[in-house]
Amino acid sequence: MRVILLQDVKKVGKKGETVVVSDGYGTNFLIPKGLAKASTNESQKELAKNNAEETARQKELKAEAEKVKARLESLNVEFTAKVGKDGRMFGSISPKEIEEAMLKQWGIQIDKRKFLDKEPANSIGYTRLRIELYHGSEGVVVGTVNVHISEAK
């Protein structure tokens, strides 16, 4: 029996694939649970249409990520920190704090889990941190944010 998977099924296949399974497994388990549907000409056309829509959506998301990347390149996120006598900074600036400052200063919402450089910014001056803005079928878009930490007076 040929079925189109509506969700990922372990040891069978990924969502959107057309696979061959035994008749009993398809009719008694996959189709009633909503994990698959029978492969017919109409369902194949619908699958092709859905794939085309998903591809267009992914291209749109990638283009949006490219715009954000270009904007991030020209921005600086500003912080002030206390500094000891030897010029070393007390504490550090975490990705969570950078996320909040980007939203407050520039109105850019980026999830802290998207930071590729997990270590905090802990030195006076400029630090460049990489952010994964898009990861999908169209590739990966990685932007860089400039964090400027100056001495608090």
Helix fraction by DSSP (H/I, runs of at least 4): 25-40%
Number of helices: 3
The helix/strand order is EEHEHEHEE
- Seen as an oligomer or otherwise, the chain set is single chain
Distance between the termini: 74 Å
Strand order of the largest sheet: 2-1-3
> Main sheet, how many strands, which sense, barrel?
3 strands, antiparallel
- C-alpha Rg, in Å? 24 Å
- Tell me the total number of β-strands: 6
Mean pLDDT rating: 90
Relative strand content = 25-35%
Q: What is the molecular shape?
A: elongated
Uncertain spans: none
Please state the structural category. alpha+beta
Describe the structure.
This protein is α+β, with helices and mostly antiparallel strands and 153 residues long. Helices cover 35% and strands 27% of the residues. The chain is built from 3 helices and 6 strands. It has a 3-stranded antiparallel β-sheet with strand order 2-1-3, with helices on one face. Strands 4-6-5 form a 3-stranded mixed β-sheet. Strand 5 and strand 6 form a beta hairpin. The longest helix is centred in the middle third of the chain and has 33 residues, at 41-73. The model has no long low-confidence stretch (mean pLDDT 90).
Summarize it.
By secondary structure, the chain is of the alpha+beta class. The chain has helices spanning about 25-30, 40-75, 95-105, and strands at about 1-5, 20, 35-40, 75-80, 125-135, 140-150.
Supply the key terms.
153 residues, alpha+beta, three-stranded mixed β-sheet, 3 helices
Topology:
Layout: E1 2-5, E2 18-20, H1 23-30, E3 36-38, H2 41-73, E4 76-81, H3 95-106, E5 125-136, E6 139-151
Parallel strand pairs: 4-6
Antiparallel strand pairs: 1-2, 1-3, 5-6
